[in-house]
Amino acid sequence: MRHPIFVSLCVMGAFALSACGQSSENDVKRAFQDVNVVDETNLNDVMLSAADPNEAVSYFQRTLGENPDRIDLMRGLGTSLVRARRNTEAVAVWSRAAEHEEATNEDRVELADALIRNNEWARADQVLDSIPPTYETFKRYRLEAMIADSKKEWNKSDSFYEIAVGLTTQPAGVMNNWGYSKLSRGDYPGAERLFSDAIRQDPALFTAKNNLVMARAAQGNYAMPVLPVSQTERAQLLYTLGLSAIKQGDTSIGKGLLQDAIDTHPQHFEDAVRSLRALEANVSG
């Protein structure tokens, strides 16, 4: 009489253990999924910040292929393609991201950036025009300024650059761009001031140093400014001054600056040597 009851209890216990086992297995799976999400997020960040750009592209292409609707992976791929200077591909990916149902204004700004890098200025202008004016970020205004430059809308350009400078704690790069804008339109004193400001913000920004000596040379000032430079950088700046002097017809000054560049450089300065030889050959000829 007791056997059926015992069997029933055993069967019920087996079902209970089975249910517990299944529940535990599901919990473990969920736990591993959570861990994988965290690990993947960390890996995405590593790929974006530290990996070789082309390695990052391969990673995001593979991961996006497995999860084709995830906008975070589209963003990662688009950013990696830009870093790898594969601009045509970057435009395609950011276009797809900008059309995603979870797309933000930031995605559209990134699309505009990729378009500018790919020399598609008109389309970049259209993309930025589609973004509400209330969306105000440093990158948005920096791109707006660059587009205004391309259209020679100088008042707009100055306004956008000024806003962009106020929206970042690291304005050296945009000051350098603004200075180059002034240089291209012939405002040499304004350009010189902005390049000097950029260097004060970032003493390591060699592009601004090179642009500064060009702005000074355009005003007939061939003296080296007081700058924090290495010996190699000083030689390169003297070379830029020399070429600028020659371009403006001050040949003898340019020749002396080229020789100074050769003498200053800690190694053989092939470009300066070649330029000096060409100059001497033209003069003697």
UniProtKB/TrEMBL annotation:
Q: Which domain of life is it from?
A: Bacteria
Q: Does the keyword Signal apply?
A: yes
Q: What is this protein called?
A: Flp pilus assembly protein TadD, contains TPR repeats
Q: Which UniProt keywords apply?
A: Signal
Presence of keyword Signal: yes
* Biological source species: Roseovarius azorensis
InterPro entries reported for this sequence: TPR-like_helical_dom_sf, TPR_rpt
Q: Which residues form the signal peptide?
A: 1-19
